[in-house]
Protein backbone atom coordinates (compact mmCIF):
# COMPACT_ATOMS: atom_id res chain seq x y z
CA UNK A 1 0.00 0.00 0.00
CA UNK A 2 1.34 3.41 -0.93
CA UNK A 3 0.45 6.04 1.66
CA UNK A 4 0.97 9.76 1.95
CA UNK A 5 1.37 11.48 5.30
CA UNK A 6 0.88 15.24 5.25
CA UNK A 7 2.16 16.82 8.44
CA UNK A 8 1.32 20.49 9.06
CA UNK A 9 3.66 21.65 11.79
CA UNK A 10 4.60 24.96 13.35
CA UNK A 11 7.49 25.53 10.92
CA UNK A 12 7.02 23.28 7.93
CA UNK A 13 4.49 21.31 5.94
CA UNK A 14 5.96 17.91 5.14
CA UNK A 15 4.62 15.27 2.75
CA UNK A 16 6.08 11.80 3.22
CA UNK A 17 5.19 9.12 0.66
CA UNK A 18 5.87 5.53 1.73
CA UNK A 19 5.24 1.98 0.61
CA UNK A 20 3.91 0.19 3.67
CA UNK A 21 2.41 -3.13 4.67
CA UNK A 22 1.47 -4.58 8.02
CA UNK A 23 4.41 -6.42 9.54
CA UNK A 24 6.88 -4.73 7.20
CA UNK A 25 9.24 -1.78 7.40
CA UNK A 26 7.67 1.35 5.83
CA UNK A 27 9.85 2.30 2.87
CA UNK A 28 10.14 6.03 2.15
CA UNK A 29 9.60 6.81 -1.53
CA UNK A 30 9.69 10.61 -1.51
CA UNK A 31 9.77 13.53 0.89
CA UNK A 32 8.59 17.06 0.09
CA UNK A 33 8.79 20.04 2.43
CA UNK A 34 7.70 23.65 2.44
CA UNK A 35 8.62 26.19 5.10
CA UNK A 36 5.52 28.17 6.08
CA UNK A 37 6.37 29.19 9.66
CA UNK A 38 2.66 28.94 10.39
CA UNK A 39 3.14 29.65 14.10
CA UNK A 40 4.49 33.08 13.17
CA UNK A 41 1.49 33.82 10.93
CA UNK A 42 -0.72 34.48 13.95
CA UNK A 43 -2.10 37.92 14.79
CA UNK A 44 -2.54 39.54 18.20
CA UNK A 45 -5.94 37.90 18.67
CA UNK A 46 -4.42 34.44 18.26
CA UNK A 47 -5.83 33.82 14.79
CA UNK A 48 -3.96 32.55 11.75
CA UNK A 49 -3.80 35.48 9.35
CA UNK A 50 -5.40 35.44 5.92
CA UNK A 51 -1.96 35.40 4.32
CA UNK A 52 -0.94 32.46 6.48
CA UNK A 53 -4.15 30.60 5.64
CA UNK A 54 -3.70 31.39 1.92
CA UNK A 55 -0.20 29.90 1.95
CA UNK A 56 -1.43 26.85 3.87
CA UNK A 57 -4.25 26.20 1.41
CA UNK A 58 -1.94 26.60 -1.61
CA UNK A 59 0.67 24.28 -0.10
CA UNK A 60 -1.80 21.57 0.85
CA UNK A 61 -3.38 21.73 -2.59
CA UNK A 62 0.03 21.35 -4.23
CA UNK A 63 1.08 18.50 -1.93
CA UNK A 64 -2.22 16.66 -2.40
CA UNK A 65 -1.59 16.69 -6.14
CA UNK A 66 1.93 15.34 -5.57
CA UNK A 67 0.49 12.53 -3.43
CA UNK A 68 -2.05 11.68 -6.13
CA UNK A 69 0.56 11.68 -8.89
CA UNK A 70 2.77 9.48 -6.69
CA UNK A 71 0.06 6.83 -6.60
CA UNK A 72 -0.95 7.18 -2.95
CA UNK A 73 -4.00 5.09 -2.11
CA UNK A 74 -4.69 7.40 0.81
CA UNK A 75 -3.49 10.75 2.12
CA UNK A 76 -3.42 11.11 5.91
CA UNK A 77 -3.33 14.82 6.70
CA UNK A 78 -2.67 16.03 10.23
CA UNK A 79 -1.92 19.32 11.93
CA UNK A 80 -0.21 19.86 15.25
CA UNK A 81 0.51 22.77 17.58
CA UNK A 82 0.22 25.82 15.29
CA UNK A 83 -3.26 24.95 14.02
CA UNK A 84 -4.30 23.37 17.31
CA UNK A 85 -3.62 26.58 19.24
CA UNK A 86 -5.14 29.01 16.72
CA UNK A 87 -8.39 30.70 17.73
CA UNK A 88 -9.77 30.35 14.20
CA UNK A 89 -8.63 26.79 13.58
CA UNK A 90 -12.12 25.52 12.69
CA UNK A 91 -12.48 28.17 10.00
CA UNK A 92 -9.05 27.39 8.59
CA UNK A 93 -9.77 23.65 8.58
CA UNK A 94 -13.10 24.20 6.82
CA UNK A 95 -11.45 26.37 4.19
CA UNK A 96 -8.71 23.79 3.58
CA UNK A 97 -11.30 21.05 3.02
CA UNK A 98 -13.50 23.23 0.80
CA UNK A 99 -10.70 24.47 -1.45
CA UNK A 100 -8.43 21.39 -1.59
CA UNK A 101 -10.66 18.46 -0.72
CA UNK A 102 -8.23 17.47 2.03
CA UNK A 103 -9.65 16.84 5.50
CA UNK A 104 -6.97 18.10 7.84
CA UNK A 105 -7.28 16.57 11.30
CA UNK A 106 -5.89 18.28 14.37
CA UNK A 107 -3.96 16.01 16.70
CA UNK A 108 -4.12 16.61 20.40
CA UNK A 109 -0.75 16.92 22.09
CA UNK A 110 -1.19 13.66 24.00
CA UNK A 111 -2.01 11.84 20.77
CA UNK A 112 1.17 13.22 19.21
CA UNK A 113 3.01 11.79 22.18
CA UNK A 114 1.29 8.40 21.97
CA UNK A 115 1.77 7.99 18.23
CA UNK A 116 5.41 9.02 18.42
CA UNK A 117 5.93 6.51 21.23
CA UNK A 118 4.47 3.77 19.02
CA UNK A 119 7.06 4.55 16.34
CA UNK A 120 9.90 4.59 18.86
CA UNK A 121 8.79 1.27 20.38
CA UNK A 122 8.60 -0.40 16.98
CA UNK A 123 12.06 0.93 16.08
CA UNK A 124 13.78 -0.37 19.22
CA UNK A 125 11.61 -3.43 19.91
CA UNK A 126 10.56 -5.14 23.12
CA UNK A 127 14.12 -5.81 24.24
CA UNK A 128 14.56 -2.10 24.98
CA UNK A 129 12.39 -2.46 28.11
CA UNK A 130 10.87 0.70 29.53
CA UNK A 131 11.42 3.64 27.21
CA UNK A 132 11.22 7.32 28.08
CA UNK A 133 10.79 9.36 24.92
CA UNK A 134 11.30 13.11 24.48
CA UNK A 135 10.09 14.92 21.36
CA UNK A 136 10.80 18.63 20.84
CA UNK A 137 8.63 20.30 18.23
CA UNK A 138 8.21 23.88 17.17
CA UNK A 139 5.19 24.52 19.39
CA UNK A 140 5.21 21.78 22.00
CA UNK A 141 7.30 19.29 23.92
CA UNK A 142 6.07 15.73 24.31
CA UNK A 143 7.32 13.29 26.95
CA UNK A 144 6.13 9.76 27.56
CA UNK A 145 7.13 6.51 29.24
CA UNK A 146 6.05 2.91 28.85
CA UNK A 147 6.91 -0.75 28.46
CA UNK A 148 4.27 -1.52 25.82
CA UNK A 149 3.27 0.12 22.55
CA UNK A 150 0.86 2.36 24.43
CA UNK A 151 2.71 4.55 26.95
CA UNK A 152 1.81 4.47 30.62
CA UNK A 153 2.00 8.25 30.69
CA UNK A 154 1.97 10.75 27.82
CA UNK A 155 2.43 14.48 28.32
CA UNK A 156 2.34 17.47 25.99
CA UNK A 157 3.64 20.84 27.18
CA UNK A 158 3.69 24.19 25.38
CA UNK A 159 7.48 24.28 25.44
CA UNK A 160 8.34 24.01 21.75
CA UNK A 161 11.56 25.46 20.38
CA UNK A 162 9.86 27.96 18.07
CA UNK A 163 7.39 29.12 20.71
CA UNK A 164 10.15 29.73 23.29
CA UNK A 165 12.32 31.52 20.74
CA UNK A 166 9.53 33.99 20.02
CA UNK A 167 8.64 34.47 23.69
CA UNK A 168 12.07 34.41 25.32
CA UNK A 169 14.87 34.88 22.80
CA UNK A 170 13.85 37.59 20.32
CA UNK A 171 17.35 39.10 20.04
CA UNK A 172 20.02 37.79 17.72
CA UNK A 173 22.21 36.52 19.30
CA UNK A 174 19.96 35.94 22.30
CA UNK A 175 22.23 37.22 25.06
CA UNK A 176 23.62 35.47 28.11
CA UNK A 177 21.08 36.92 30.55
CA UNK A 178 18.05 35.79 28.53
CA UNK A 179 19.52 32.32 28.09
CA UNK A 180 20.07 32.08 31.84
CA UNK A 181 16.52 33.26 32.57
CA UNK A 182 15.02 30.72 30.17
CA UNK A 183 17.14 27.97 31.71
CA UNK A 184 15.81 28.76 35.20
CA UNK A 185 12.22 29.03 33.98
CA UNK A 186 12.38 25.69 32.18
CA UNK A 187 13.78 24.03 35.29
CA UNK A 188 10.72 25.18 37.22
CA UNK A 189 8.22 24.39 34.45
CA UNK A 190 9.42 20.82 33.93
CA UNK A 191 9.75 19.70 37.54
CA UNK A 192 6.21 18.40 38.05
CA UNK A 193 5.88 16.81 34.60
CA UNK A 194 9.26 15.07 34.85
CA UNK A 195 8.33 13.70 38.27
CA UNK A 196 5.16 12.21 36.77
CA UNK A 197 7.16 10.54 34.00
CA UNK A 198 9.68 9.13 36.47
CA UNK A 199 6.89 7.85 38.74
CA UNK A 200 5.88 5.49 35.95
CA UNK A 201 9.13 3.59 36.47
CA UNK A 202 12.88 3.78 35.79
CA UNK A 203 13.84 3.83 32.12
CA UNK A 204 15.90 1.12 30.48
CA UNK A 205 16.36 3.38 27.46
CA UNK A 206 15.87 7.11 26.98
CA UNK A 207 15.17 8.32 23.45
CA UNK A 208 15.09 11.70 21.75
CA UNK A 209 13.33 12.09 18.44
CA UNK A 210 12.54 15.04 16.16
CA UNK A 211 14.67 17.22 13.94
CA UNK A 212 15.84 19.24 16.94
CA UNK A 213 17.40 16.22 18.62
CA UNK A 214 18.95 15.02 15.38
CA UNK A 215 20.52 18.44 14.79
CA UNK A 216 21.84 18.64 18.35
CA UNK A 217 23.37 15.18 18.11
CA UNK A 218 25.02 16.06 14.81
CA UNK A 219 26.47 19.25 16.30
CA UNK A 220 28.00 17.25 19.13
CA UNK A 221 29.66 14.72 16.85
CA UNK A 222 27.03 12.16 15.81
CA UNK A 223 27.14 10.67 12.32
CA UNK A 224 25.58 12.73 9.49
CA UNK A 225 22.24 11.76 8.00
CA UNK A 226 24.04 10.43 4.94
CA UNK A 227 25.40 7.58 7.04
CA UNK A 228 21.90 6.09 7.14
CA UNK A 229 19.15 5.74 9.75
CA UNK A 230 20.54 2.63 11.46
CA UNK A 231 23.79 4.19 12.62
CA UNK A 232 23.69 4.62 16.40
CA UNK A 233 23.52 8.28 17.37
CA UNK A 234 23.51 9.71 20.89
CA UNK A 235 23.40 13.05 22.65
CA UNK A 236 25.09 13.51 26.02
CA UNK A 237 24.27 16.07 28.69
CA UNK A 238 27.89 17.23 28.90
CA UNK A 239 28.17 17.64 25.14
CA UNK A 240 24.88 19.54 25.08
CA UNK A 241 26.02 21.99 27.76
CA UNK A 242 29.19 22.75 25.81
CA UNK A 243 27.17 23.19 22.63
CA UNK A 244 24.77 25.66 24.25
CA UNK A 245 27.67 27.78 25.44
CA UNK A 246 28.92 27.88 21.86
CA UNK A 247 25.78 28.42 19.78
CA UNK A 248 24.10 30.88 22.16
CA UNK A 249 26.81 33.42 21.32
CA UNK A 250 26.31 33.03 17.56
CA UNK A 251 23.95 34.85 15.25
CA UNK A 252 21.24 32.98 13.37
CA UNK A 253 23.18 33.40 10.12
CA UNK A 254 26.29 31.87 11.68
CA UNK A 255 24.34 28.96 13.17
CA UNK A 256 22.85 28.24 9.74
CA UNK A 257 26.39 27.62 8.47
CA UNK A 258 26.94 24.78 10.95
CA UNK A 259 26.75 21.25 9.58
CA UNK A 260 23.48 19.66 10.66
CA UNK A 261 21.56 22.91 11.12
CA UNK A 262 19.26 24.02 8.33
CA UNK A 263 18.42 27.66 7.68
CA UNK A 264 14.86 26.88 8.80
CA UNK A 265 15.98 25.51 12.18
CA UNK A 266 18.84 27.93 12.89
CA UNK A 267 16.65 30.61 14.55
CA UNK A 268 15.26 28.18 17.14
CA UNK A 269 18.13 25.74 17.74
CA UNK A 270 19.28 27.57 20.91
CA UNK A 271 15.84 27.32 22.50
CA UNK A 272 15.59 23.70 21.34
CA UNK A 273 18.93 22.92 22.96
CA UNK A 274 17.79 24.54 26.22
CA UNK A 275 14.59 22.47 26.23
CA UNK A 276 16.62 19.31 25.59
CA UNK A 277 19.03 20.21 28.39
CA UNK A 278 16.23 21.01 30.84
CA UNK A 279 14.33 17.82 29.98
CA UNK A 280 17.38 15.64 30.45
CA UNK A 281 18.26 17.34 33.72
CA UNK A 282 14.71 17.06 35.07
CA UNK A 283 14.62 13.36 34.17
CA UNK A 284 18.15 12.77 35.56
CA UNK A 285 19.35 11.57 32.15
CA UNK A 286 22.94 11.78 30.94
CA UNK A 287 22.50 10.24 27.46
CA UNK A 288 19.68 9.90 24.96
CA UNK A 289 19.62 7.69 21.89
CA UNK A 290 18.41 9.41 18.74
CA UNK A 291 15.52 7.66 16.98
CA UNK A 292 15.02 8.32 13.25
CA UNK A 293 11.30 7.55 13.52
CA UNK A 294 8.78 9.94 15.06
CA UNK A 295 5.19 11.12 14.57
CA UNK A 296 4.80 10.48 10.85
CA UNK A 297 6.01 6.90 11.17
CA UNK A 298 3.71 6.43 14.15
CA UNK A 299 0.75 7.55 12.06
CA UNK A 300 1.68 5.09 9.32
CA UNK A 301 2.06 2.21 11.78
CA UNK A 302 -1.24 3.04 13.48
CA UNK A 303 -2.94 3.16 10.09
CA UNK A 304 -1.66 -0.30 9.23
CA UNK A 305 -2.78 -1.62 12.61
CA UNK A 306 -6.24 -0.07 12.17
CA UNK A 307 -6.62 -1.76 8.78
CA UNK A 308 -6.05 -5.09 10.49
CA UNK A 309 -8.24 -4.70 13.59
CA UNK A 310 -10.93 -2.38 12.26
CA UNK A 311 -10.34 0.44 14.74
CA UNK A 312 -10.27 4.12 13.88
CA UNK A 313 -6.93 5.69 13.09
CA UNK A 314 -7.65 8.55 15.49
CA UNK A 315 -9.98 7.72 18.35
CA UNK A 316 -11.43 11.23 18.79
CA UNK A 317 -12.93 13.41 16.01
CA UNK A 318 -10.51 16.19 16.77
CA UNK A 319 -11.67 18.58 14.08
CA UNK A 320 -15.10 18.92 15.70
CA UNK A 321 -15.36 22.13 17.72
CA UNK A 322 -17.10 20.51 20.67
CA UNK A 323 -14.33 17.97 21.16
CA UNK A 324 -11.29 20.18 20.70
CA UNK A 325 -9.25 20.29 23.90
CA UNK A 326 -9.00 23.45 25.94
CA UNK A 327 -5.87 25.48 25.35
CA UNK A 328 -3.87 24.68 28.45
CA UNK A 329 -0.19 24.84 29.28
CA UNK A 330 0.04 21.10 29.80
CA UNK A 331 -1.94 18.28 28.21
CA UNK A 332 -1.53 14.85 29.66
CA UNK A 333 -2.81 11.31 29.50
CA UNK A 334 -2.21 8.59 32.09
CA UNK A 335 -3.11 5.02 32.56
CA UNK A 336 -2.24 3.26 29.33
CA UNK A 337 -4.96 2.39 26.82
CA UNK A 338 -8.03 4.52 26.69
Can you offer a commentary on this structure?
The protein has helices at residues 50-69, 81-85, 89-100, 109-124, 161-168, 176-199, 211-219, 237-247, 252-255, 269-282, 295-309, and strands at 2-8, 12-19, 27-35, 74-79, 105-106, 131-136, 141-146, 153-157, 205-209, 234-236, 287-290, 330-334. The chain is α/β, with parallel strands linked by helices. It folds into 2 domains: 2-106, ATPase, nucleotide binding domain (Nucleotidyltransferase, domain 5, 2-Layer Sandwich), CATH 3.30.420.40; 125-290, Exopolyphosphatase. Domain 2 (Nucleotidyltransferase, domain 5), CATH 3.30.420.150. Strand 1 (2-8) and strand 2 (12-19) form a beta hairpin. Helix 1 (50-69) crosses helix 3 (89-100) and helix 7 crosses helix 10 (269-282). The two termini are 28 Å apart.
Per-chain topology:
Blueprint: E1 2-8, E2 12-19, E3 27-35, H1 50-69, E4 74-79, H2 81-85, H3 89-100, E5 105-106, H4 109-124, E6 131-136, E7 141-146, E8 153-157, H5 161-168, H6 176-199, E9 205-209, H7 211-219, E10 234-236, H8 237-247, H9 252-255, H10 269-282, E11 287-290, H11 295-309, E12 330-334
Parallel strand pairs: 1-4, 4-5, 6-9, 9-11
Antiparallel strand pairs: 1-2, 2-3, 6-7, 7-8, 8-12, 10-11
Helix pairs in contact: 1-3, 4-11, 5-10, 6-10, 7-10, 8-10
